[in-house]
From TrEMBL:
One of its GO terms (molecular function) is DNA-binding transcription factor activity. Residues 1-58 form the HTH lysR-type domain. Keywords: DNA-binding, Transcription, Transcription regulation. InterPro entries: LysR_HTH_N, LysR_subst-bd, WH-like_DNA-bd_sf, WH_DNA-bd_sf. CDD domains: PBP2_LTTR_aromatics_like (cd08414). It comes from Kushneria phyllosphaerae. Belongs to the LysR transcriptional regulatory family. The keyword Transferase does not apply. One of its GO terms (cellular component) is protein-DNA complex. It comes from the Bacteria. This is HTH-type transcriptional regulator BenM.
């Protein structure tokens, strides 16, 4: 059975007149009659009772009518979905983000702008360690990431757009002896127990801290996100290094101090594949190109 047979059947069933149905379909009546007979032969059922005075549906024709309407409506819907997908107004975009992107407002602004411009694009977001983001992007499990490039090696298959940058701060329990110091040096922290932010290729959670401090710190506890690490700091279980953008959000029981001899900053960088062909992802890229992020920091 072909779709054209259902279209021909539907026209005759709605018109109950072969001549009018043929005119509606822009074909000649004999051709329409032939196609209906072919459909009846395919189904091994009579669909219409015909005589010189009237055309009416048989019981089999009445049973086929709602199904034909449903199938043809689904075909129209499928065609529209494909058209919208090709136009980039329908589809799915998978985004990975780091905590700094969320609390800096970068992620929220990107999501809001996309949803306003393309309300039918589905956005899936996942918080991931920067290294895990990079791997998922390379393996095709993510379409875009918002996170720091500082601990990653630039890859020529990706485009990188730095959206914001924040100073690095040491987070201390409020009752910590160093909490009274306005400024702290890296050497002041040599004897401290650090809370590491673990992730792919960084099982201990010391990579970024080692790069910032100039030595490998002693990792006493580990956390799977900076927010959890700050919770452990509040509990008095250690110190950690975080982006300054987190400080206003998590100040209960935690103090943040500048590291005077550390000039490493934590960026929020958008990373996407250069050879992207997914229309929805390309629409996401166009939306982001029209946003200036740094002015809101």
């Amino acid at each position: 059975m072909e779709l054209r047979h259902l279209r021909y059947f539907l026209a005759v069933a709605e018109e109950l007149h072969f001549a009018r149905a043929a005119s509606r379909l822009s074909i000649v009546q004999p051709a329409l009659s032939m196609q209906i007979k072919a459909l009846e032969a395919r189904l091994n059922a009579q669909l219409f009772v015909r005589n010189r005075r009237q055309v009416r549906l048989t019981a089999s024709g009445q049973a086929l009518l709602p199904e034909a309407r449903r199938i043809l409506a689904q075909v129209v819907q499928a065609e529209e979905i494909v058209r919208q997908t090709e136009a980039g107004v329908l589809g799915r975009v998978r985004v990975g983000y780091a905590a700094s992107a969320l609390y800096a407002g970068v992620l929220g602004r990107a999501v809001h702008t996309l949803q306003k411009a393309y309300p039918n694009i589905e956005l899936q977001v996942s918080e991931l360690h920067p290294h895990s983001q990079h791997t998922a992007l390379r393996e095709g499990r993510l379409d875009a990431t918002f996170g720091p490039m500082v601990s990653l090696t630039p890859d020529t298959e990706f485009e990188h757009r730095r959206l914001a940058e924040f100073a690095l701060r040491v987070a201390l329990p409020a009752e910590h002896p160093l909490a009274d110091n306005a400024l702290i040096t890296a050497s002041d922290l040599r004897q401290e127990s650090f809370i590491g932010y673990i992730g792919e290729h960084d099982d201990e959670g010391s990579y970024l801290m080692t790069r910032a401090l100039g030595y490998r710190p002693r990792i006493g506890m580990q956390a799977q996100s900076p927010v959890i690490a700050l919770g452990l700091v509040e509990a008095g279980l250690g110190v950690t290094l975080v982006s300054s953008v987190l400080a206003p959000r998590f100040s209960q029981g935690v103090v943040y101090r500048e590291l005077v001899d550390v000039d490493l900053a934590l960026d929020v960088t958008l990373i996407m594949r250069i050879d992207e062909h997914n229309p929805a992802v390309m629409a996401f890229r166009r939306v982001l190109n029209d946003i200036t992020f740094q002015d809101q920091m």
